[in-house]
């Protein structure tokens, strides 16, 4: 596995792959890798000739400087995991490599980013779209891999690809969880023992909501209330939002269950200073 640290080195490598008609898969990450990331790398290795994994903690997508500073960074451990998973080239640029000058362009995804993560982390998806666009241009992938764990992110990236005619396919894979249901996340490393012990409640809350959504015995608003109450019973968890949304448009349900649609149950919560997100999908009967 090669380690590339400059944008120019990645571009030069990409050019050679393209000339040799090799199919390129890209897996963008912020590192502190876990099984959720590695399933994307393995899938990219199965479905392409070469795999680029980027490990870059992107400052422009953090709306909180402290969160950026505390984000886990373990480059040596990441590099050791990637070769065996099928990564061909690990791209680990510095901030200066990715942002030789401040960007001026602003991304605005309208209603897609006026809810959930976009609503609670202003500018977050501008930063995501900026860095992902740069990575697409530098690595010119045939396919790019993302996790369902960040449902709003993958929806917005599909919109980015459509709107800017990026010539590539977006591939999404399901959320990988710990045995107790907690969604794997690089941020889980920062949980205290006490917070880690109650963290599976987030998935339990989503499963409670999913069961109620499937039954459709109560309105979406009543389900929202039930899930919020379930989490309120755990003092170590502070719920930031819980939203029942149409999985495609991401718009919150209002008053009724849309027949035949897939509903996304999405939440963000704080556990002792660590912010976690998770979601599950439920397809309603037609
Ligand atoms: P991150 O390093 O957190 O920016 O994540 C990089 C990619 O891995 C994103 O596409 C995430 O959605 C995906 N990912 C993160 N955690 C998981 C997980 N538990 N299961 C599946 N994919 C994940």
Automatic annotation (TrEMBL):
Q: Which reaction does it catalyse?
A: (R)-pantoate + beta-alanine + ATP = (R)-pantothenate + AMP + diphosphate + H(+)
Q: What is this protein called?
A: Pantothenate synthetase
- Note the subunit structure: Homodimer.
Q: Which enzyme class, named as a word?
A: ligase
An example molecular function term from Gene Ontology annotations: pantoate-beta-alanine ligase activity
Q: Which residues bind (R)-pantoate?
A: 61, 153
Any single GO CC term annotated in Swiss-Prot or TrEMBL for this entry: cytosol
Q: Which family does it belong to?
A: Belongs to the pantothenate synthetase family.
Task: State which pathway it belongs to.
Answer: Cofactor biosynthesis; (R)-pantothenate biosynthesis; (R)-pantothenate from (R)-pantoate and beta-alanine: step 1/1
Q: Which residues bind ATP?
A: 30-37, 147-150, 176, 184-187
Originating organism: Hymenobacter aquaticus
* Enzyme active site: 37 (proton donor)
Task: State the Gene Ontology BP annotations.
Answer: pantothenate biosynthetic process
């Amino acid at each position: 596995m090669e380690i590339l640290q400059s944008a120019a080195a990645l571009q030069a490598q990409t050019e050679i792959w393209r000339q040799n008609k090799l199919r390129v898969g890209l897996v963008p990450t912020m590192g502190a890798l876990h099984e959720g990331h590695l399933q994307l790398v393995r899938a990219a290795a199965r479905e392409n000739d070469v795999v680029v994994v980027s490990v870059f903690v992107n400052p422009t997508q953090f709306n909180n400087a402290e969160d950026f500073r505390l984000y886990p960074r373990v480059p040596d451990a990441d590099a050791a995991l990637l070769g065996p998973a099928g990564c061909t080239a690990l791209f680990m640029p510095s901030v200066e490599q990715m942002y030789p000058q401040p960007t001026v362009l602003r991304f605005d995804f309208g209603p897609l980013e006026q809810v959930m993560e976009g609503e609670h982390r202003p500018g977050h998806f501008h930063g995501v779209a900026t860095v992902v666009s740069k990575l697409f241009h530098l690595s010119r992938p045939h396919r790019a891999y993302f996790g369902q764990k960040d449902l709003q992110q993958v929806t917005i990236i599909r919109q980015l690809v459509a709107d800017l005619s990026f010539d590539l396919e977006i591939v999404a894979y399901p959320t990988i969880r710990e045995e107790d249901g907690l969604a794997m996340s690089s941020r889980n490393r920062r949980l205290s023992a006490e917070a880690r012990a109650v963290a599976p409640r987030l998935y339990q809350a989503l499963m409670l909501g999913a069961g109620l959504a499937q039954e459709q015995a109560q309105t979406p608003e009543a389900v929202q209330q039930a899930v919020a109450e379930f989490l309120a019973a755990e003092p170590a968890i502070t719920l930031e939002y819980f939203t029942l949304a149409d999985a495609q448009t991401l718009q919150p349900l209002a008053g009724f269950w849309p027949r035949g649609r897939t509903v996304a149950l999405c939440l963000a919560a704080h556990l002792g200073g660590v912010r976690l997100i998770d979601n599950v999908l439920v397809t309603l009967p037609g």
